[in-house]
Specification:
Structural class: alpha+beta
Radius of gyration: 27 Å
Distance between the termini: 18 Å
Largest sheet: 6 strands, antiparallel
Number of domains: 1
Strand order of the largest sheet: 5-4-3-10-9-6
Strand content: 15-25%
């Protein structure tokens, strides 16, 4: 889905190639231009999908458009595949540690996962010097932003372990939490703002003359943002195994008690 979203965003810029083209007019420039092409070359069908538009329907402009469609489309697809691949690997390996449990309530915690940057770089487009520069900017910025975001994810005091309110044992055995969507956790998403990501990518690229760099980065960031919003709502935090002592347990006088000073840990694969 990210690839389609990135392509749609890039198409919305309605860019034309060659850029800044002006068809010659007047005498003799207009006549010479018209006489330079065969009748069948003056108007041909444009390339599809229209990631960019031809400046005119002239065959040579359309050929230029088709070349750009192929290169831009391949780069967008390659970057989106690399991001999704890194995201999937991170989600499979990510864990949550340091969850504090008091009675049925869980709080705090820290998400730990593998960095995105090397994963994205490993499969991002690198067929040319420009692609290497663009891909490096995308990988480094997104990787850093994702680390910043995941460092802010905390459990805001959720009733994850109802049985721990009154448990009939000196120690509560490991029990999984109540599945909860990621969006229900405390988190700061400012580092993943599309505008900030684009600005950082442009700065890291450091080449204001690089072709279509602003539009490419904006398309990728916009597509990522839409996918991230869906991911937040659809991904569940599961299998955070909680355990802890019940210090007030003293049968037969106190046959049950709440967990105090319990801890929870999520094994890899808990983001589902």
């Amino acid at each position: 889905m990210m690839k389609q979203l990135a392509r749609l965003k890039f198409t919305s810029f309605n860019l034309k190639v060659p850029t800044d083209w002006q068809t010659p007019s007047g005498d003799p420039a207009g006549k010479h231009y018209g006489d330079a092409f065969k009748p069948e070359e003056k108007t041909v069908a444009p390339g599809m999908p229209p990631l960019v538009q031809p400046a005119t329907m002239n065959k040579y402009h359309v050929d230029t458009q088709k070349m750009h469609i192929a290169k831009i489309g391949a780069f967008l697809d390659g970057c989106c595949d690399a991001i999704c691949g890194a995201w999937g690997q991170w989600q499979t390996a990510a864990t949550m540690v340091g969850v504090m449990i008091t009675g049925p309530v869980a709080s705090m915690g820290q998400v730990v996962g593998i960095p995105w940057t090397p994963l994205i770089l490993a499969s991002a487009p690198k067929a040319s010097a420009n692609e290497i520069k663009y891909s490096s900017a995308v990988a480094n910025v997104l990787g850093t932003a994702w680390l910043s975001y995941t460092a802010t994810i905390k459990i805001p005091g959720l009733p994850w372990y109802p049985a721990f309110a009154a448990f009939p044992s000196p120690v509560a055995p490991p029990m999984p939490n109540i599945p909860t969507p990621v969006i229900a956790l405390t988190q700061v998403t400012a580092s993943l703002s599309p505008a900030i990501l684009k600005q950082q990518m442009v700065g890291m690229l450091g080449d204001p003359m690089a072709p279509f760099h602003g539009q490419l980065f904006e398309a990728i960031c916009d597509a990522f943002d839409k996918c991230f919003t869906i991911w937040q709502a659809s991904t569940q935090v599961m299998n955070v195994l909680g355990t802890g002592p019940i210090p007030t347990f003293a049968p037969p006088y106190v046959p049950v008690g709440p967990v105090v000073g319990g801890v929870g840990t999520m094994a890899p694969g808990g983001f589902v």
